[in-house]
Structures are given as structure tokens and as C-alpha cells.
Amino acid sequence: MCHLRFVIAAMIAPFMVACSWDWLPFVYRQDIHQGNVISQEMVDQLRPGMTKRQVTYVMGAPLMIDPFHDDRWDYVYSNQPGDEPRVQKNVTLIFKGDELAALQGDFRPGTLPSIEMKKDATINVPKIARERTIWQMITDPFDNENE
């Protein structure tokens, strides 16, 4: 009878523990990322009049394209880091024809500092002194004999 109770307890225990993982301390919970990763730097690169192809290059392919509204692209990013509550960010891009007309959502476009490139730029790349490889050490005596 004692063995039967032990067997039943051993069979039921995994099911009871599996349902109650939330209360266990020091258990690692993996971050859950879903959707398109959206950052403020990406939104800052968007400009009115950009083509759909340029927007796709900056933001990536949209998560949702409404079949009834081809000129509306929705980007959704959801992140749940470990035990913390889920954070969701949305960006909706509206096009007129093939050009970007408006932006709606959790991000506001900012201004990136413009970087002026100098026309006269000289870059000195130092030569790296490297040791000979094992193959070069093996083949060097044979190369000298052929000369």
C-alpha cells in the first residue's frame, strides 16, 4: 500500500509543479519579443515623401498591411522582459500613392543631426606585421630549392 501511494504521488507531482511555476523564486524567465523591432532612431530617419521601398529599407517589412487600405502600414512591437509587465509600441504609416504622408503611434519623429562628409579624406592604414603561418614555415624550404 505504501508503494502505491508513492507511485501515485510521483505521477501527480510533475503536473502540480508545472501549473505553479510562477511562485518559484530565482527562476529565469526569458524575454519575449514579438513583432517588428521599432526604435526611435528608425522613426527619426523617416521623412515625408519617402517611397514605400525606402520606408521598407529603414523600418523593415510591416507586420500588417490592411487588405482594404493598401496605403496604411502598421508596425507593432511587443516586449515582455522576464517578470515585468508587457510593453507594446505601435507605429502606423500612411501613404498617399507611393509616398509617405503621415505617421501615427507611440513614436514622434525627431531630427537627427546632419553629418557633413569631407571631400578630402585621407586614411592611413598601418601595415600589420604578422608571423608566418605553419604552412608557410613548411613550404618555405621547398620554395627556395626551386629557385
Task: Describe what this molecule looks like in 3D.
The model has no long low-confidence stretch (mean pLDDT 80). This protein has helices at 2-18, 40-44, 52-59, 134-145, and strands spanning 32-35, 64-65, 72-80, 87-96, 99-105. The chain has a domain at 31-112: Beta-lactamase Inhibitory Protein, Chain:B, domain 1. Strand 2 and strand 3 (72-80) form a beta hairpin. Strands 1, 2, 3, 4 and 5 form a five-stranded antiparallel beta sheet that branches. With 147 residues, it is α+β, with helices and mostly antiparallel strands. The protein is built from four helices and five strands; from the N terminus they run αβααββββα.
Topology:
Blueprint: H1 2-18, E1 32-35, H2 40-44, H3 52-59, E2 64-65, E3 72-80, E4 87-96, E5 99-105, H4 134-145
Antiparallel strand pairs: 1-3, 2-3, 3-4, 4-5
Summary keywords:
147 residues; alpha+beta; 5-stranded antiparallel sheet
Percentage of residues in strands: 15-25%
General shape: flat
**N-to-C SSE string, H for helix and E for strand:** HEHHEEEEH
Roughly what percent helix? 25-40%
CATH architecture of the domain at 31-112: 2-Layer Sandwich
Measured between the Cα atoms of the first and last residue, the distance is: 91 Å
Biggest beta sheet summary = 5 strands, antiparallel
Structural Rg: 30 Å
Low-confidence stretches: none
- The CATH class of the domain at 31-112, by name, is Alpha Beta
Mean pLDDT: 80
The total strand number stands at 5
What name does the CATH topology of the domain at 31-112 carry? Answer: Beta-lactamase Inhibitory Protein, Chain:B, domain 1
Instruction: Please give the count of helices.
Output: 4
Derived structural class: alpha+beta
